[in-house]
Fold this sequence. Notes:
Layout: H1 18-21, H2 33-39, H3 58-68, H4 80-94, H5 109-120, E1 126-129, H6 136-143, E2 147-150, E3 154-156, E4 159-161, H7 164-171, E5 176-179, H8 194-201
Parallel strand pairs: 1-2, 1-5
Antiparallel strand pairs: 3-4
Helix pairs in contact: 5-6
Amino acid sequence: MKTCNFDTLPNRRGTGSAKWEFIHEGDQFNQTDRTDKKYGDERLLPLWVADMDFRSPPAVVEALTERARHGIFGYTAPTNSYFTAVTNWMQRRYNWRVEREWILQTPGVVPAINLLIQTFVQPGEKVLIQRPVYYPFMNAIKNNGAEIVSNSLRYENGRYQMDFGDLAEKAADTAVKLAILCSPHNPVSRVWTREELVRFGE
């Protein structure tokens, strides 16, 4: 079995990489004066997006290469193996038996959050989040006509914690129809404990 190489960092400059081209002055992919003026410094490291600077695992490259050899790139539908992979992962990692009919596909996390807000929240109602948090959460709430309620995290003893007193107070508002929980939390990197998750749910 081939292993991943974490010792070599490929040079991604000039390849259309959003995170790298955004900071370099005069690159062919940099289209705006604003980024030239604000980030035009070769010494900067782009730490703003979850985009790894390691090559993809050989198994992933091989699977994509094999699929590309088919030569037709039409719309795809989830296969039985897709559902099996999801249910097996949830069972193996979380000891949670997920039924196939529970699984819905979306293009990504952000579209899924938008769809959830549209399903469960009427314009003018409220959605609770825990700041600091991934900025598309706020955009999704505002873009769907809802109001942001912030149950801000507390930074104590070098670690972010939930403010459960504030959470209980704000969740008691009947206009709050949805809460978005992020774990591992982006950007503070907290994986909430079982006790914290149970208390959050209560």
